[in-house]
Every structure is written in structure tokens, then in C-alpha cells.
Amino acid sequence: MPRGGFDASCLDRLLQTDRPEYLDRDDVDDSVKRQVTDALDWVGRVFKNHEQVAGIALDLLADTADPKILELGAGHGAVSRTLLENHPTAEVTVTDINPASVAAIAAGDLGSHPRAVVREMDATAIDAADDSFDLALFALSFHRLAPEQASRVFAEGTRVAKQLLIIDLPRPPAPLHLVRLATMLPLAPFVPLVHDGVISSLRCYSPSALRELAHHADPAITVELRGGLVSPQIVVASRAVSGRR
């Protein structure tokens, strides 16, 4: 499926790639991956992205007294840390598929936090029972998944949690996408974060693609979409108890 969905224009279909980011490559030194992760954490702190993501998640849990949250693809763990700081009784399971990221998170304050559990976990095959969590959160890395993997996240996230919250980069209309890429490409060969940013832009999903991915996972999954264009895309997915499997 095209990243822009089955209704994507010819130009939009050209503005995509299967090339992995540095973070997903086995032939890239860990120091380069750490540069990208640290830069993402810095950007998140400076521009309050961590606070924004945590705020969106906690708004969905406003009526839940002691929420159990699963963060998928946690990366540096800063969002989970913010969730714990901003909610006095929340319990957070912090996960990532990358062993090095999990080890780094476990070695920090989250590894000894009384309301946090740090685990290595694949978001496409979540090691948890049905309805184990009030919310599963996948923030700013969903685009790194191929369509079949992304669809599995919808299936698994809505299986283990009452709600699945995906926050990711917007996919703008093709002309605006070209402008965004043009501003990034000159620095991409020299700055690892920008290199990964270009690839992320080419891999992010449109609203219609996100709806198709959820439907492919299970027609019983309902999807609410908001944001996009220049702000992050916000996806809230859930399904009725009778539709769980």
C-alpha cells in the first residue's frame, strides 16, 4: 500500500521510500544511532514535544484513576518519564525493540522507578494479555514500520489496551511535501538527525492510509483522526469487546 493511501496521487506515490533510517540499520555504528536518539530527546525537550505527547495521552485517561500505560517504541524513554512525572499514580511499561535502547533506559532513572517497568518488546507482537492496559502509546516512530507491520500494531495495540494512541509526523499534500524535503536535503548527508528526518518524511502515512491499515488489521477497529498538515497526526483507535481476539 502506498504511504499516501490507495487514493494517493502519482507525485505522492513517488515521495516515499523503503530505505531504513540510521536507527533501523544494522550496518550503522551505535554512536551514530545514539547521536540521533540524543538529538531527538533534545528537540523534544526544547520544543516541549514530550510534554505535548504526554498531555494528549493523559487527556484520554482523565477518567481513569490509576491508569496502566504501555509505551511502544519508547526510544530514549523521555515520554514515559514525563507521564510518570505528570500523573501521581500512573503505571508505565516502557518498551522498545532495540536492545541497546532498552538497556540505556533500564540503566537510568526509569529502571528503578517504582511505577515503571522496562522491557524489550516488539510492537507487532506484544507480549501481554488482552486488556492489560488502559492505553497503548506509540509516539513519533510509527512511520518506521512497513505497512504490514503497521497494521499489526493496530491489531496488537487494540488487543492489549482499551485505546491505542498513535502520534506521528503528518504527511502533507505532495507540493508542500516537496518544499519540506527541499529544506532538509542539503543537510542530510552531514547531520544524522536530518538524514533520518528526510527518510521519516518519505515514510510517514496519510490519514487515508492509517484508516486502511486499521481496517486491514480488523474491520471492528474504529479510528479517530485529528491534527496533521503541519501539526502531528493523532490517531485514537479502539474496538468493541466483542471484536477483540
From TrEMBL:
Natural source organism: Mycolicibacterium komossense
InterPro entries reported for this sequence: Methyltransf_25, SAM-dependent_MTases_sf
One term of GO molecular function: methyltransferase activity
Limits of the Methyltransferase domain: 69-162
SUPFAM superfamilies: S-adenosyl-L-methionine-dependent methyltransferases (SSF53335)
Alphabetic keyword roster: Methyltransferase, Transferase
Pfam families cross-referenced by the UniProt entry: Methyltransf_25 (PF13649)
Protein name, per record: Class I SAM-dependent methyltransferase
Biological processes, Gene Ontology terms: methylation
